[in-house]
Amino acid sequence: MQVEPNEAKKIKIAIAAKQFLYRLGIKTIISVIGVEPELYETNDYDNITQCLKHHPDIEYLIINQDILPLAKEKSLQSLKELCPCGKLMVIGDASMKHCSCASFMHNIDNQKDVLEKFQEFFFEPDKNPIEHENTTLLSDREIEVLTAVAMGYSNKEIAEKLFISSNTVITHRKNITEKLGIKTIAGLTVYAIINNLIDPETVKSK
Fold first, then answer.
1. In this structure, is residue 1 part of a structural domain?
2. pTM for the full predicted model
3. Least CB-packed of 32, 49, 123, 160 within 10 Å?
4. d(C-alpha 157, C-alpha 203), whole Å
5. What are the φ/ψ torsions at residue 68 (nearest 5 degrees)?
6. How far apart are CA 60 and CA 13, in angstroms?
7. Do 17 and 119 fall within a single domain?
8. Are 145 and 72 members of one domain?
9. Residue 33 sits in a domain of what CATH number?
10. Residue 197, domain member (yes or no)
11. What is the pLDDT along the chain (206 residues), one digit of tens a residue?
12. Could you say which of 69, 98, 123 is where a domain stops?
């Protein structure tokens, strides 16, 4: 499988996993947390090594355990050496947890943990747009509006639910965006989940 970049993107990210659904899921999470990537993806270990040789400036490398040869930690170390300035994440079972050269995410983590770990992986602490203490920036009414937005309600539905006008809802949403620095509904949804404002299953069922 040839490794090709998608066009017109920003952060250089390589994804390697045998299963298409794994790669699709990773790309979806990257989109949800607001990262705009220049993506390289493959389902083969040899291809990802060739990709890194040709693109040593890749900034983030996400590897599923299923593509690694038997000497998994040694293989990860080799990938890290090919990508010295990049960050490496491995998704796998508990046997990979103590690998020193990569961040680890368990392949059975729940939705909230997955989102948190991807946030930690992609954003430095002072640049992370989703931090628990940010909830103190919002008024009680803004938290109510944010929660409703994250659950998929329209401005009209939020207005009816909270007994306020649609214009007031729009004003609250503008204030929320300015305070949190999060412009997309997907980003606000991630924020709400991580800060325990909504249950992920509630969003899923919408």
1. no
2. 0.59
3. 160
4. 16
5. -80, 140
6. 5
7. yes
8. no
9. 3.40.50.2300
10. yes
11. 444 444 433 788 999 999 998 899 899 888 888 788 889 999 999 999 999 999 888 889 999 999 998 888 888 889 988 887 788 999 988 777 777 778 888 877 788 888 888 888 887 543 444 444 455 688 999 999 999 998 889 999 999 999 999 999 999 999 998 888 787 787 788 888 878 888 777 665 44
12. 123
